[in-house]
Amino acid sequence: MHLRNCHNFHDFRRMAKQRLPGPIFNYIDGAADDEVTHRRNTAAFESCDLVPNVLRGVNGIDMSVTVMGQKLGMPVYCSPTALQRLFHHEGERAVAAAAARFDTMFGVSSLGTVSLEEARRISGGPQVYQFYFHKDRGLNREMMARAKQAGIDVMMLTVDSITGGNRERDKRTGFAIPFKLNPAGITQFAVKPSWAINYFLHERFRLPQLENHVDMGGGVMSISKYFTEMLDPSMSWDDVAEMVQYWDGQFCLKGVMSVEDAKRAVEIGCTGIVLSNHGGRQLDGSRTAFDQLAEVVDAVGDRIDVMMDGGVQRGTHVLKALSLGAKAVGLGRYYLFPLAAAGQAGVERALELMRMEIERGMRLMGCSSVEQLTRQNLRFR
Prior knowledge:
Elements: H1 9-19, H2 22-29, H3 36-46, E1 48-50, E2 65-67, E3 70-72, E4 76-78, H4 84-87, H5 91-101, E5 106-109, H6 116-122, E6 127-131, H7 137-150, E7 154-158, H8 168-173, H9 183-190, H10 193-201, H11 223-230, H12 237-247, E8 250-256, H13 259-267, E9 272-275, H14 289-300, E10 305-309, H15 315-324, E11 329-331, H16 333-365, E12 378-380
Parallel strand pairs: 4-11, 5-6, 6-7, 7-8, 8-9, 9-10, 10-11
Antiparallel strand pairs: 1-12, 2-3
């Protein structure tokens, strides 16, 4: 399969599946428990119909948005995700360069495989740093100070991961960092030698955000141990309020779902929230961000920037979320499969397809700017 024959999310997913060893493909593709929430994330958009207006004299299309003080050329951004150099040796470098080319925001994860400083050098566009709350408060402050020094625009604290989700696909293959594969997993690597050659020909796999703080070498610290031993499950609103004050800038909570929590985020001075169920990878059976969006926007949308992610595969999905009041929409697997399939060229093709779909959709909706997308344009079945 060739990149030019990829026309949508499913094409990129197929191409990634051809290239990646099974355990790595399943790490991206999989979710928690029965993967019900993962499937519902995309299905939720299907219960909502667009109602277009015609003859509106749409000439130019302005799809730019401003979110958390950042001007984006399109209303989608690349959500921070972990371990990207496992999927393709370019990793976060590819995503940073592609996001810069499309004038949008991207994020580097605490579990990123390229340093946030290097990503900052690649892209002059808005960059978020996604991090987790550690038991060691000094480490939290050190990470924020480092981000400030690197010129990061937005801090994004993930709040739905105080314990890891039950990802059974990873258990079946023994997927862990460092690799501790079982025989089934090793066999799946053996049948994809090109991935292994590529992986070993490039620089050593690292987690630059954590390597001064966590010994990941010699099998001492796996990602699951990082979650169970380093992160603080007793994290509270008071703890986060302190961090918001310490950062003193754009601060966003990712993984908020309830109206009550959205209101608390406003009270402690956050400037943004991302409605998210972590791509269905944490609490299976949890509500989808799209289904929860209107309720949260109605409660706090005039006081804080509300974003969402989860299951977004089409430009029309983005238009539906924007019509409900989301300020911008996060992409995850949508750019990870193209990254795995073809590196930077893959991410750029995926973002180009998304840009074209949003533009075409806006023309067909009779809207020349994002502000013109309202709930008048939607009907729920």
